[in-house]
């Protein structure tokens, strides 16, 4: 005798981050962000922007053009990692600097600041530890 009923009727839609289509959509979004940042306006081409990004980060500019032109389903998974690495190299330092700037200007309780540091993966600063004691 079984007490459990089968879950065949449960059709919940959940996106997994290990799903190749989701990763392709993220690579496409990241590539578009990189190309928009690098594009210099009228007179410049997307191909030239992709070439500048590729030269600066030693990657193939064709990868960025594939992400720009193709749907995520048609891109190879092995090519996405260079897009992720380039995106982190371009935007990672700016994100860290923005976090530090906001952190210095905040007047939040030290416990909240420590929680934000923990979530972001940073070690707590000395003044936060001294204020907590």
How would you characterize this protein structure?
The protein is mostly helical. The protein has one domain. Helix content is 63%, strand content 0%. The chain has six helices and no strands. It has helices spanning 20-38, 46-57, 61-69, 80-105, 110-120, 126-132. α1 (20-38) crosses α2 (46-57), α1 packs across α4 (80-105) and α2 (46-57) crosses α3 (61-69). The longest helix has 26 residues, at 80-105. The chain is elongated and about 45 Å long. The mean pLDDT is 77.
- The outline comes out as elongated
Tell how many strands the DSSP assignment holds.
0
Uncertain ranges: none
Helix share bin: 55-70%
Mind summarizing the main beta sheet? Answer: none
Average pLDDT = 77
Rg calculated over all Cα atoms:
22 Å
User: How far is it from the N-terminal to the C-terminal residue, by CA?
Assistant: 59 Å
Percent strand: under 5%
H/E series, N to C? HHHHHH
**Multimeric state:** single chain
Tell me the domain tally: 1
Structural class by SSE content = mainly alpha
The number of helices is 6
Write the layout of secondary structure elements.
Blueprint (H helix, E strand, L loop, with lengths): L19 H19 L7 H12 L3 H9 L10 H26 L4 H11 L5 H7 L1
Helix pairs in contact: 1-2, 1-3, 1-4, 2-3, 5-6
Short description:
The chain is mostly helical. Helix content is 63%, strand content 0%. It starts with 19 loop residues before the first helix and ends with a helix.
